[in-house]
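User: Fold this; tokens only.

Assistant: Input:
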Amino acid sequence: MATTADRPPTAHALPPGIHAHRTLFTGSGREYFRVWIVNVLLSIVTLGLYTPWARRRTAQYFYSHTQVAGSPLEFVAEQRRMVFGFLAFAGLYLSYQLAVETGQQLAASLLMFGFALLAPFLWASAMRFRLGATRWRGIRLAFTAKWKEVYVASWPAFAIAALWTVLFFAAAALSPAMPTGIAEQPGSVTPLPALGRATLGLMALGAVLTLLCVIRLEFNYRRLLVARARIGGQVGHWKPRYADFVRVWLATAGFFLLTVLLLALAGAAVTGGSAAVLRRTMGDAGSLGGMLLLALLALLGVLLAAVLASVPARAYREARLFQLVWNNVGISQIARSKTDLRTAGYVWLRTRNLLLTLLTFGFYRPFALVSEYAAKVRSVTLYLKGGTDQLAGELVKQQGAFGDAAADMLGLDVIG
């Protein structure tokens, strides 16, 4: 049964020649459960070697059930490339773990440094592979960013490494080794409290700068992905600014703190009542056991509260960024997009899905993935200039040999 979100918006207010198309998702949790359970079982039996095949089947299911302007997407990646990417990444990861376990610190450090240098290359390779394997009405998508652009956009990652290297040496310089007998001299005053405050100040500064760099890195990569995406001869259009991303992250931090406060108040009420009941039940003889039990319950409560508080906050951030991006991107002068995804509704959906997944020991996971993906897809409306048949014909003509060459890039989507 069609819902309000499935119906395209009315076109009475659209300019002449502009047509609105609501994107649709035709899949269901019941259908995807069959795909998911086979993937899980075969991955277990093959000790994880089935992973690239599982990812391909998952991508094909979601793509084939996503309709854009009346036509489904296609995922046409070659399986051998996905297997090669998976094996290459697995080999590098196992080499690092072997170096760590055998105490080869130099080799482990070199591998970690190599991972850091390769991270932009791997991200760009994954984007080339993902877009190159995507088709709409036979038209190939492509990611055309140059390697120089990719590494320039990755500067926040290198800045984080440099920042913490400087802070580490600064903290070491502020904390010289204390004489062994200084703590034993009566009346002596050590500078440790001041040094502790200075170190904490440096760590706090590092945390703030790191967060800003993380936000900048996410902004740079999203902008590069849209601005250097190509379909036919048309390129992506990007409008959001870095300040917009910062505002979303600040709002997310506030939302997280509010969630933590509410959970703390609820936990205090429950814990206080439980403690009173426990004292009345166990009496003085069981005071030690009761205290240990309360301490264990408090620890479990803190861990559970941290998870529960992070889930709504991450869902809030995801919804806000989805709105920010899809309300401000397009394809050259031929397409623009808008979304009516509701933040509160998506936060509740993600929270409910987590609770149901926990209650079903993970078996609700495929239903959760489908419902969250469908909520996003069905909220987007594309505004196209001209009819879809005319537009598709023009894009096919513009594609030429360019798309064929772009699709030959090495794919490493398995690590994305």
